[in-house]
């Protein structure tokens, strides 16, 4: 199965702190799920330990946009700097 070695981008609705957000989601194999609002104002990571999305700080909005563009083949493959929940 190639799920662990693939990337994917799709649009979805997620709930964070009882608010619904329309986002672009980036899946990095089995490592992580990341989300970004279309205007780039918010970024989030899925925490599987608590089965919930959480906002992430640290300026990852642009990194998630780069990851989304790579997965859509709009940019060539490259290194991506994203946080991981342990």
Secondary structure layout plus pairing:
Layout: E1 7-16, E2 19-28, E3 32-36, E4 43-47, E5 52-55, H1 61-71
Antiparallel strand pairs: 1-2, 2-3, 3-4, 4-5
Strand order of the largest sheet: 1-2-3-4-5
Assembly category: single chain
- Structural category is mainly beta
The residue fraction in helices comes out at 10-25%
- Mean pLDDT, nearest integer? 94
Describe the structure.
By secondary structure, the protein is mainly beta. It has one domain. The chain is built from one helix and five strands; from the N terminus they run βββββα. The chain has one helix spanning 61-71, and strands spanning 7-16, 19-28, 32-36, 43-47, 52-55. A five-stranded antiparallel β-sheet has the order 1-2-3-4-5, with helices on one face. It is globular and about 35 Å long. The model has no long low-confidence stretch (mean pLDDT 94).
Question: What brief labels describe this structure?
Answer:
1 helix; 86 residues; mainly beta; five-stranded antiparallel beta sheet; single chain; globular
How would you summarize what this structure contains?
Helices cover 13% and strands 40% of the residues.
């Amino acid at each position: 199965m190639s799920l662990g070695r693939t990337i994917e981008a799709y649009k979805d609705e997620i709930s964070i702190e009882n608010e619904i957000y329309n986002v672009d989601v980036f899946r990095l194999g089995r490592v992580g799920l990341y989300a970004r609002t279309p205007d780039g104002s918010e970024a989030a990571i899925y925490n599987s330990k608590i089965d919930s999305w959480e906002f992430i700080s640290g300026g990852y909005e642009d990194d998630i946009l780069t990851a989304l563009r790579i997965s859509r083949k709009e940019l060539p493959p490259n290194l991506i700097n994203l946080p991981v929940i342990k």
